[in-house]
């Protein structure tokens, strides 16, 4: 279960389209390599492209004037970056940062909006993904307010692990503190507690997942809730579209 990338990178949203429509869509995409720390868009900037990760990871981050940052959602091969485009908006209210390197499909904003206008199937798929993304953001808000840091960190690590290939995650304590909206000292204590349970190991900016099942037990229920909402979305898409979609 989850969003784990298969051996051959793909994007699950695009793969959910009927074959002929998928071919037309892919014909207008280009493959680009994303680099760690690359900024795709800043709040208030015009969104130039719709991005569909294949084997990279994008953090969507809310920023404060004081400089504070908090990740409100993450996007891997289960989704896309550029949802405001389907709502007729041209600018982003969030910061989009690459936190996992790898390839992605890129389509110009104008071309993406043309495809939306011409394809009720694509529009329906994007609306369902938007609903999932809104649910994920709401779940993150609840999680941040009510759940202990150790459980939140376990959830975040699982979500990242789902969207990347392999067990090694390129993450520093400073980066984690920004993503979770807590002080670095708190992240260090929580990471040490998870490591002492044998669930992860931490080596020079890399976290290695050693016991995924144990990490799931340590996580709050928000992780399972997110995963179930996405799986339900794909099932709803598969029924009216075609039976060969991913489940």
Automatic annotation (TrEMBL):
Residues in HTH crp-type domain copies: 151-217
One GO molecular-function entry: DNA-binding transcription factor activity
What GO terms fall under cellular component here? cytosol
Q: Which residues form a coiled coil?
A: none
Region forming the signal peptide: none
Q: Is Transcription among the key words of this record?
A: yes
Which domain of life does this protein belong to?
Bacteria
| Record key words, sorted | DNA-binding, Transcription, Transcription regulation
Which Pfam families has this protein been placed in?
HTH_Crp_2
PANTHER family recorded: CRP FAMILY TRANSCRIPTIONAL REGULATORY PROTEIN, HTH-TYPE TRANSCRIPTIONAL REGULATOR ARCR
Q: What is this protein called?
A: Crp/Fnr family transcriptional regulator
Annotated organism of origin: Vreelandella salicampi
């Amino acid at each position: 279960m989850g969003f784990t990338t298969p051996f051959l990178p793909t994007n699950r949203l695009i793969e959910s389209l009927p074959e002929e429509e998928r071919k037309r869509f892919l014909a207008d995409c280009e493959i680009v390599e994303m680099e760690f720390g690359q900024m795709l868009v800043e709040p208030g900037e015009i969104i130039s492209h719709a991005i569909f990760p294949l084997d990279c990871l994008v953090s969507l981050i809310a920023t404060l004037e004081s400089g504070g940052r908090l990740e409100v959602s993450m996007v891997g091969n289960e989704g896309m970056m550029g949802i405001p485009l389907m709502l007729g908006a041209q600018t982003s209210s969030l910061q989009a940062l690459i936190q996992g390197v790898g390839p992605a499909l890129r389509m110009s904003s104008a071309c993406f909006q043309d495809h939306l206008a011409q394809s009720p199937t694509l529009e329906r798929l994007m609306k369902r993904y938007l609903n999932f993304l809104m649910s994920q953001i709401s779940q993150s808000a609840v999680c941040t307010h009510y759940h202990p840091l150790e459980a939140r960190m376990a959830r975040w690590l699982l979500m990242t692990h789902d969207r990347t290939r392999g067990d090694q995650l390129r993450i520093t304590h400073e980066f984690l503190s920004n993503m979770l909206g807590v002080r670095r000292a708190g992240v260090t204590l929580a990471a040490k507690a998870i490591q002492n349970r044998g669930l992860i190991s931490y080596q020079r900016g890399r976290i290695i997942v050693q016991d995924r099942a144990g990490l799931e037990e340590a996580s709050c229920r928000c992780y399972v809730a997110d995963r179930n909402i996405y799986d339900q979305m794909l099932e709803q898409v598969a029924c009216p579209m075609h039976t060969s979609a991913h489940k």
